[in-house]
Specification:
mainly beta; Porin; 12-stranded antiparallel beta barrel; globular
Amino acid sequence: MMKKLMALGFALGLVSAPALAQVELGNGFSVTGSAVGQTDYMFRNISQTRNRPAVQGNLELSHESGFYVGGFASNVTFVGTDARQEVDGLAGFRFKLSGLKVDIGGVYYSYPGYTAGPGQYDLAFAESVMKLSYEINPVTLLGTAAYSPDFFGSSGTGVWLEGGFDWKTPVFDVTLSGRLGHQWIERNNRFGAPDYLAYGIFLQRDIAAGFSVSVGYYGTDINQKECLDLKICDNRFMAGLTWKF
């Protein structure tokens, strides 16, 4: 059972989302959100929609103290299951240490409507996540570490480490980004794939009226035979359109 290597959003995983718009609510509170349409939904470079388009939404309530709560929703399609949507909840705290930005939080990935069949396991899981960023204008260096005590499909301990950069190029206000990560899973046979390397390079540009576009190339070192004989782990291009509100 492979499919969930794919889920979260922070993203990550997915095309890196541009900074969201912000609506001030008073008393230090603000709301950010976005709606996204893209040619695929990948979580850590594995398709969650069997290489089909996805429509997604993000919403976050934050306080000037650094605390935040939010949610993410997307369509999904996992072969051999009746899972058709993913709804995630997240919460955390953001702060700065000199020039280093730190984000410590947690994400719960759920699949409303999913029913485990014979020989199947629960898909839902939780992760603790820490993100770091450091800006050396015009480049921002990024790092992510995530830990799950029982990863997707009840596959045991899961650990994700990722590093990358965002470069605000001088060409047409385009941001060039690169990511390199590695996923470890305790029970690979239950998960459906070996531990693997994930990599990607992509471009993002704001357009107007809160819209932005992105396009990128993503891959893993998992071959098709190791990926349930499916093409959801293959290298691919992906494009997306985001509206920030």
